[in-house]
Fold these 2 entries.
Entry 1:
Amino acid sequence: MDTIDNIPAAETGTKPLGAARVGIGGPVGSGKTALIEQLLVHLAKRSISTAVITNDLVTAEDAERLRKGGAIDPARVLAVEAGACPHTVIREDPTLNIIAADQLDRLYRDLELTIIESGGDNLASTFSLDLVDWWIFVIDVAGGDDIPRKRGPGVLQCDLLVVNKVDLAPHVGVDLGRMLEEARSVRDGRPVVATNCRSGENVAAVADAIAEAVLVAR
Amino acid sequence: MNEDNAATILTALQHADSNFPSGSFAFSQGLEGLASLTGKRPGTDEITNFVREQIVHRWASSDRVALAHAYRAGDDLDRVAEIDEELDLSTFCETLREGSRRNGQALLATHVRFGTPGAASYRQRIDRDTATGTLPVVHALLWRRLGLAEEACVAMSGYGLVSSSLTAAVRLNFVGALTAQSMMPPLLSLVATYAGEPVAEDAEICGFNPFGEIAAMNQAGLALRLFSN
Ligand SMILES: Nc1nc2c(ncn2[C@@H]2O[C@H](COP(=O)(O)OP(=O)(O)OP(=O)(O)O)[C@@H](O)[C@H]2O)c(=O)[nH]1
Ligand SMILES: [Mg+2]
């Protein structure tokens, strides 16, 4: 009989084995899903076995968009409902995302990277390190060049800050150079990447940062 | 109160707390479907009745019975898994069934990381499809190992249902947070009534709450969903 005390030691402890887990958070509409769509192309080129978990707030729309995009096997995209609260499911209680990520590890033995997209939230949104190894916060120039100055916990604490929609800067009267400078300064020089996730500009730099931060070590 | 009793109460508080990571916040047990079913935003009476029905027709007659049997099965995990499957099969609505399983597995994930005895080996059974992982059975399995008595586990399980249902009502903006708390005492005293009735050795798991199941099925069909069920 398999008794209750027969516990495989490797199953306990605080850090799970399996694919690296990378979080992508940021305000509503900043381009998180667009960034993932572009990243998937780069990751596929580098033959990195990837899966995605979305935390859509109200529907499975982002998950459907990624499945239909053709850049990933649709079965490798899971949608986890956030119970009306995007930050609970990535921070206060990440267990539903943890079991989804565990499930992907079990299903795909070769899995190297699981990307977790948070539902759109506010500048205070942050990922728990119980859930991810490393995380990105995406803001966009159209949200205003004062966003970095507001020093939201998401902007300050993330491992990589992505400033997206650089193509829109001239149209919304944003001085991109100054916005990036301020972002670097509030982050004490920690990395900031400026992207256009419609054209794919600079997304390779984001893929490089992920590879270097979480894949090289494995 | 002696120190042991205080310690037991504190353990129960920690594990019944809605802050304990268990995934419960994402489940409304069909409450989200209630508005479109009745055609209006539910108020305090509708929500109280809805949760009462859950307590009487689902929790007391099936979750609570399964929990008690699983608790008594102790270290016999084959028997625990049998009860687990029985409870799973007794729920008709797919999203409620799946919700209980995901909720149980999410709670188990936390305990696997803690190294709570029994958590990892039961998770392994679930991975191999030889156990289901319904929430009340996972409660019995884990809470027993924390040294809590059967009656305490039953009360904590009932508290969890009331508390997570009312939290969902607040998140859905059906009622305010203060109103939700004021709705709690009568629902908890109903839980207490059942928690004070020992589950008979030969009691069968038999949940039947047609209204709740219809609300849950309605929720599953909504184009816009905030909750898992
Ligand atoms: N011009 C421009 N538009 C972009 C860029 N990136 C994304 N968009 C557009 O911005 C809108 C929102 O992009 P999404 O990728 O859905 O944003 P999101 O952060 O995933 O949104 P939520 O998940 O709803 O919070 C879409 O219409 C995108 O096409 C960009 O770099 N430039
Ligand atoms: Mg998105």
Note: DSSP finds ten helices and no strands in chain B.
Entry 2:
Amino acid sequence: MLKFIALRLLQGMLVLLGIYAVTFVLVAATPGSPFSSERAIAPEILAQIEAFYGYDKPLGERFITSLGNVLQGEFGPSAVYANRTVTQIIAESFPVSIKLGSISLLLALVLGVPAGILAAVKRNTWLDYLPMSVSMAGICLPTFVMGPLLALVFGLILKMLPVAGWYGPEYVVLPATTLGLYYAAYFARLTRGGMLEMLNQDWVRTARAKGVPEHTIIWKHCLKGGLIPAITFLGPALAGIISGSFVVETIFQIPGLGQWFVRAALNRDDFLVLGLTVLFAAMIVIMNLLVDIVQVALNPRLKYD
Amino acid sequence: MPLLDVDDLTTYFHTRDGVVRAVDGVSFNLERGETLGIVGESGSGKSVTCYSLMRLIPEPPGRIERGTAMFDGRDLLQMSPKELRKVRGDKISMIFQDPMTSLNPYLRISTQLIEALQMHRDIDSKAALNKAIEALEEVGIPGASKRVFSYPHEFSGGMRQRVMIAMALITEPDLLIADEPTTALDVTVQAQIMEIIKQRQNDLGTAVILVTHDLGVVAGSCDKVLVMYGGREMESGSADQIFYRPRHPYTRALQKTIPSLQEKGQELFTIPGLPPDVSKPIHGCAFHPRCPYPKIGSPEGERPQLEDIEPGHCWAACGFCDSSAPIETVLAKADDHVAEPVDGDA
Ligand SMILES: Nc1ncnc2c1ncn2[C@@H]1O[C@H](COP(=O)(O)OP(=O)(O)OP(=O)(O)O)[C@@H](O)[C@H]1O
Ligand SMILES: [Mg+2]
């Protein structure tokens, strides 16, 4: 198992390196520069700024230098926010995004998985149709519709919750619900599918023939295998919640990574874009590794290799 | 009083394409320690008969329409789910056709073996585990004390069927229902599995319902035989009666298909045609379209009634063909008919 993890970590590093290289090239190939602005800047001052950030060097050299820095955990200065480094920005906003993301994911699991199990067990009854139609609606509504809708209803009409900002626990509710509901819908459908597949297996009949009651059949015989599709989806779900946070953090004015990412891209803040891309990619790589480990733990027919 | 007395068991599936009359008025009984063989071609309703007794029919679309199945004085078909759970796995156990899919791949063999014990006996897990190991040894699994902790995928098909037998018999049930326990296995393993079932049956005095489509398997191991076709009972009786004095054309034809009873070098005999489509109502005798005997009268008519020939031996008395002659002469005649034009050409 250790070998498996080491190997997968190594693979992950290579993936990250690739992502870093591609992003670097794409950023460099984008027209304009981080330092162009509406105000005219004297050419000699611009040259000085470019020299300060290393932009006077050839591309290859810049790549090597920045990669060396990143490997030491230093993502460089923000090209736009002159007095802050990328690392500082991440340190400030990462916890915000982690909080929003994990609460959303938790909400998605807590709502989606039980709904899926219930729907599978009570299939073709209203306990199946109701959650499944709701989840279909959830999947069809993009977050940029759901977000403002929730803000309108709970914030402006009912005046129960704040619609923007990030100051106390009540500020988490709407954005986390917006993000979470969408993925709850997916988890519900995947769990239902997985559980139905298990419940139709021959060995469920064997268990019934032994006199095992239905609830034991669900928990003991079917849950492990039935959850595998949902667990496999955790990796993509995390990726989705991260990219979803770009939208949601902007809608609800949350000072998280997503908002910084959007701003960095618009401002051509090269170092910040690179740093955040690598961070997001690393999170997805780690999540996928965790998912793989859990999968092997659940399914005795899989082996680490 | 017999251990199991089934009367007029009728199970239909109400599907979108119509009513599938999978089991249509089947009756039989079984004494303690006895073995009943249920034979018939694919689709004749053997499995559905077994599942109906255990109430394992998926409902809907399935429904047990009528009948009784008195087991130890109580009707299995009327039991509440709770009563039923007490009988299943304790008094009646079941083994299934495909050992590759009948064990849960996510749970250890040990967990699955002791489940019925935990469910039905007041036993701590240590004692249950010991019993599980013992049960595995009894069905001939070497190194049982280690292998009990394996997962099903670490066993071969034959080994898994042994595990299934051990699992079914761990509570020493009164009745074991074995639905084609060897069909999915290698020919070499089939005999071993049958041997183990027989041996455990002798040890424990269990009554067995053995489902098979191979009349040859029945010959060696059953006291009684029920011949089914199109969901109906065609003939039933003691093994001797069915083998030496078969009355129904279908039983006779089925007997002709036993490979070991056929002359060497001859082409294997198979009954021409296909089993009936039980999703359509069957008029008269279900076997009529494939029956090799000379037909008399129109095939439309009343369903043949069960009629006793001798004590314990009855058949669906068919009046649509003249089945007085032995099947050999009928088949020989049919062969001649086919052969004649060829001779003429030569
Ligand atoms: N769940 C179901 N829904 C609809 N029809 C069914 C269902 N289960 C069985 N049947 C039908 O019932 C009839 C009898 O099936 P059954 O499985 O009892 O046959 P069998 O004698 O066991 O055959 P085999 O030798 O192939 O196992 C078949 O026509 C089958 O299509
Ligand atoms: Mg069958």
Note: The radius of gyration of chain B is 22 Å.
